[in-house]
Amino acid sequence: MKRRTLLIGASGTAAVLATSYWVTSNNTLQTASGSDSMQADDISEDEYPKLAKDWTEFAPAGQSFPDPSDTLTLSKEDWQHRLDAAAFDVLREEGTERPFTSPLNDVKDTGVFVCAGCDLPLFTSAMKFDSGTGWPSFVTKIDGHLETRRDFKLILPRTEYHCIRCGGHQGHIFSDGPKPTGQRWCNNGVALKFVPKTSA
Ligand SMILES: [Zn+2]
């Protein structure tokens, strides 16, 4: 397979990435004005074989997962019943957990990270990296399972992302991540569950 140029992280893009942006479904990064955009090329299988792998290769054999199109809509009361208080605060109220509190920070095993609200797989273990921020962090996501939205909770707009199946808030995307994407998907640990490929 031909190795393709990854534009994100290339010189000249830093200034754009430092401003607010969002990621569309085809991985196009766009500035707030919409006047400038760049294409984040597919992750190279030659250089990043694990990242490019299909998420199902990280899931336990024989385990079934929900489909992203199988939308889960519940009332606030039902969500409160289904989730513990910490998960409800993040997933349904867009809260943020305290850093360095999630056991998932230290997880390095092979597996998939699924939405704590509806079990939809959102990340693979190959996408995880140690950002030092105290929140589980990923360089990319499973395509088609997360949606993004501008967030104006702080003065500077941020890019919020949430589970496409249940709408549960997961975290925010930042542009200071490592190669190959330059992205840091900063996730609340209580919004995820880890499903190891093989049980210990
Ligand atoms: Zn979900």
Layout: helices, strands, pairs:
Elements: H1 14-18, E1 21-23, E2 28-31, E3 37-39, H2 49-52, H3 76-82, H4 85-93, E4 111-115, E5 121-124, E6 128-129, E7 137-138, E8 146-151, E9 158-163, E10 169-174, E11 184-187, E12 192-196
Antiparallel strand pairs: 1-2, 2-3, 4-5, 4-12, 6-7, 7-11, 8-9, 9-10, 10-11
Gyration radius, rounded: 17 Å
Helix content: 10-25%
Instruction: Please summarize the sheet with the most strands.
Output: 6 strands, antiparallel
Q: In CATH terms, what is the fold-level topology?
A: Metal Binding Protein, Guanine Nucleotide Exchange Factor, Chain A
Q: How large is the count of helical segments? A: 4
β-strand number: 12
The shape, in one word, is: globular
- What is the CA–CA distance across the termini? 35 Å
* pLDDT < 50 runs, ≥5 residues: 1-39
Strand content range: 25-35%
Topology pattern, helix = H, strand = E: HEEEHHHEEEEEEEEE
Instruction: Spell out which ligands are present.
Output: zinc ion
